[in-house]
Predict the 3D structure of the following.
Amino acid sequence: MITIRQLQALYWVAKLQNYSDAAEHLHLSPSALSKRLVELETIMGKAILDRSGYRIALTQFGRAFLERTGPFLRAYDELCKFGVEGDELEGHVSFGLPQLVALTWFPKAIASLRSHYPKIVLEPYVNTASELIERTKKGFIDCSVVNTLTFDEDLAYTKVSDVEHSLFISPKLLAYDASFESVDVHKYPVLTQVPDSNVTHVFNGWALKHGIEARKVLTINSLNAILQMVLAGIGAGFLPSGLCAPLVRHQYLIKLQKMPDAILGYYFVRQKGPTSELNSAVEALMISNCDFHLSMYAEFPKPDYS
């Protein structure tokens, strides 16, 4: 008898074109995955996978068989959720997010999720936009929020926000350097994210447009580390304006006012095609809570530089 697990094994091997990736997605060892595929071929009495080459390929029978598994797997997914509504929704949803989301609106979104859907377990995964997009495309993550828009036919993007970025410095620099002027950034290093980050690409274009010449650009792979170094007076930081607003208000930071903010778009991304009620509920809730003006630094006390 054919089992749903055997069909799932075939579907994900064909989709991801990689045994290790498919096994990871299904939380199996590669040998267990291979066993399910062999069992399916034995039941059908025909070869489904063409094992003569180095790349994963389906036989003609395998391709025809796979076409018929899609509707069945979708029907199975819907059947498992039949009659489950509202606060009865339950299950695990993996959600990819960049560091900025974790430092702004994600805590509020989690509280809202627990209030509306107490049986849904959200599994967060924090990484760079390129890694989040790749893992979403392969099915390792159900959905993500990223700051990069790619033209990939397998992914669906929904814009959720524009996020302003600018240069910020610590007032400590005023005490350390009596000749400091708020727009004289060429005297100090600029701290931004790693070279392959879209934030850094935006900074480079923005700096070129406004004639900003930094003495040196220091790249760091942690947004929070950049902010802490700016607060310590290491240099100027290219940072999200909403995240830094409370620190400016409490005089921990000074925002350079000469040039307009750089704008960076943020998008919700998932695989194209039908999605489950569970994932749709999480998507709608996340988008409704998306507010990059929230900041984990909102409650900081006013510093004393005397």
